[in-house]
Amino acid sequence: MTELALLPDPASPLEFVTARTAFEDMLDGRVPDAAVAAFLTAMAERDETAIEIAAAAQAMRERMVEISAPAGAIDVCGTGGDGAHSLNISTAVAIVVAACGVPVAKHGNRAASSRAGAADTLEALGLDLDRAAANAEDSLNAIGLCFLFAQTHHPALGRLAAVRRAIGRRTIFNLIGPLANPARVTRQLMGIARVNYLETVAGALELLGTEAAMLVSGEESLDELSIAGPSRVVRLGACGSGETRVTPEDAGLDRHGLDAIRGGDAGYNAAALTALLAGEKSPYRDAVLLNAAAALNVAGRADDWPEGVALAADAIDGGAARDLLARWIAFR
Known about the structure:
The chain contains 15 helices and 7 strands. By secondary structure, the protein is an alpha/beta fold.
């Protein structure tokens, strides 16, 4: 019988090795559920540190089911939990950016706080999630796009599913999901619903050796760049450094109220994404163009916001994004 581990006191910030050991013990099932719940709750109440987030992500990375990725692959993923119930922005961005020639290893899951997560909407579009998971490495290398279903690539998290549901609130695991991409990408656009965590998560990414990243948060507490108003942006590595404030107008786009990009169930969101890729002009399109511009900057393909918007618009209007989605759905 495995001896139960004792968790450190989470009342004060933890050092990297201590934090990583604690998360290894939790992920490997050596800690009682009640102790896990108390530890995660206490850590969340005082706000997690960059060192703790990096240590937890490292523990997850060591236990994930990996795939190999081509050079320059990126991820576009948010923490979720912003309560906006918007259309699937990052999923559409992944397709559009991949159509621009940037390999995208899209990490995602089913809905937690919204009605349709990335997995739900892609499934409604016709993507076979089981086949996509089995062929993820091949499709990423062949067509430049894959979906890395968190449930498939992070089996260790299954041990904590019940206790996380019982806690019923955000914990550090909501922050580290995007930091544990199974393709081990070193470039990413990451949306964070809580503005005050931008610098903290940027510090964690730096500790983990990230090559280039842009961390974004709409000032309405969105885990993406907002089409409704200003957003805060923290750049890291090859993207630059420091924090800036970005508006839709900086990218040559109009503002739209958040109600204009409100989503629905998987079928509703899939229909909206299909219309977007068919070239429909809409607030949804503008939101995708804005966030795609950020991803293209992370990938080193666009030097500024207007250039990124123009590249993304060409990928949509020329049919490249629509055709790539069709190839992805048919890929075997």
